[in-house]
Design brief:
Strands 1-2-3-4-7-8-9-11 form an eight-stranded parallel β-barrel, surrounded by nine helices. A two-stranded antiparallel sheet has the order 5-6. The model has no long low-confidence stretch (mean pLDDT 92). The N and C termini lie far apart (73 Å). By secondary structure, the chain is α/β, with parallel strands linked by helices. Helix 1 runs parallel beside helix 12 (326-344). It is 50% helix and 16% strand. The longest helix is centred in the last third of the chain and has 30 residues, at 362-391. The chain has two domains: 7-352, Alpha-Beta Barrel (TIM Barrel), CATH 3.20.20; 362-391.
Length: 392
């Protein structure tokens, strides 16, 4: 078991079918974060998307501002701000404002932008997105540190730019970069000593990519700072739905999993593999791409990921997917916190040792108790007999 205290959270893109009322869907997303806060989850990361109809949060900052007012402890992250879509000074100012409004509960996740349709609407060449992300990230870090920046690129201009508020968090909010199938996320995490949000942790082929990208980050960190990355900043994302039984979990996800798969086949036809006539949901379970089962199945997933990472990563984020209806979804998160999270923080270790001790030594302990009880009975009887004799 990892020596790092494993944190638990969600990645909320979100995914809402186009036959669902969007206003209600957004309200349910806020209610979900409230529920997670009540259950004791540590983190929630909110996505940014602008097309394709399913992932309908366009501004994670707006959502976080609302969620922060409804919650008390859970930390809230942008998962992620697509930096090539934004002027970096504006991003820095918005994150710093949220850092003050949340009194340090904000986390800043950054990425190049995922959906090609988003970039197309903005007239951005996809081949430039990762370079632009790197440019913007460097500038934002300088602004966070209070520097004045003058810089002109092909896509933004800064003239004596500075933030008028320094961050509430010192030196600035915790930061993480998106990492999936290319080494760009690992390169930037290593260069700037940032966390990583690994979206391909459970996907077919993604496990090796995860290990490779984390190695890239560690190699660069070792070269620049003489030390490896802190594994506590590594966050792995995977889809999960659990219930009391595997059969119940499998039945629950029939509510929405096929719409979810259809969405991905539409936005990335090249990435959808044929199921060769097999049940696609059963294939997701068989290959380990998703957990649809019991808390024990979820524990096995985490242990498999820990083994692949040498036992060291800081947080597992369940991908929020709306495969089940809202009540079953809330129940799944409740089961995770009660059984999975508690397992990895060894919340019941002393309780288990206590009951094992009582079981092992129960006969001896009970014998002592019975002896003491018998002695008390005999003493009482003797005292009563003595009183009777005196009365006579």
């Amino acid at each position: 078991m990892s020596q790092i205290k494993l944190r638990h959270g969600i990645f909320l893109a979100p995914f809402h079918p186009v036959d669902t009322d969007p206003t209600l869907a957004l309200q349910r997303d806020l209610q979900l974060v409230e529920w997670l806060d009540e259950l004791g989850y540590e983190e929630a990361w909110i996505g940014e998307h602008h097309s394709a109809g399913f992932e309908i949060i366009a501004s994670p900052e707006l959502f976080i501002a609302a969620a922060a007012e409804r919650t008390k402890r859970i930390r809230l992250g942008t998962g992620v701000v697509s930096l090539p879509y934004h002027q970096p000074l504006m991003v820095a100012n918005r994150i710093i404002q949220l850092d003050h409004q949340t009194k340090g509960r904000i986390m800043f996740g950054a990425g190049p932008g995922l959906l090609p349709s988003d970039a197309n609407m903005l007239g951005i060449d996809p081949s430039t997105q990762r370079d632009r992300m790197a440019q913007a990230l460097d500038v934002i870090l300088r602004l966070f540190r209070g520097e004045t920046v003058t810089e002109k690129t092909e896509w933004y201009t800064l003239n004596n730019a500075r933030v008028h508020l320094l961050p509430y968090s010192k030196p600035y909010p915790e930061m993480a970069v998106a990492s999936a199938f290319t080494p760009s996320g690992g390169r930037m995490a290593g260069k700037y000593d940032l966390g990583m949000l690994c979206f391909a942790a459970t996907q077919a082929g993604g496990f090796d990519v995860l290990a490779f990208n984390w190695k890239v980050a560690n190699d660069i960190s070792q070269e620049l700072r003489g030390r490896p990355m802190n594994p506590e900043v590594l966050r792995l994302v995977g889809p999960v739905h659990i219930a009391e039984t595997r059969a119940q979990a499998r039945a629950n996800v029939e509510f929405g999993i096929h719409k979810w798969r259809d969405y991905f086949s539409r936005i990335n036809p090249l990435g959808v593999q044929s199921d060769n006539g097999k049940d696609p949901v059963e294939e997701m379970i068989r290959t380990g791409a998703a957990v649809i089962g019991t808390p024990d199945d979820a524990i096995a997933l985490i242990e498999r990921l820990q083994k692949g990472q040498g036992g060291e990563f800081g947080c597992f984020l369940q991908m929020a997917h709306n495969w089940a209806d809202f009540d079953a979804t809330k129940k799944s998160y409740d089961l995770w916190q009660r059984h999975v999270a508690s397992h990895f923080r060894r919340a019941n270790a002393n309780r288990q040792e206590s009951i094992e001790w009582v079981t092992r030594d129960g006969r001896e302990l009970m014998g002592g108790a019975m002896k003491a009880a018998k002695e008390m009975i005999n003493r009482h009887a003797s005292e009563q007999a003595a009183k009777t004799k005196v009365a006579e």
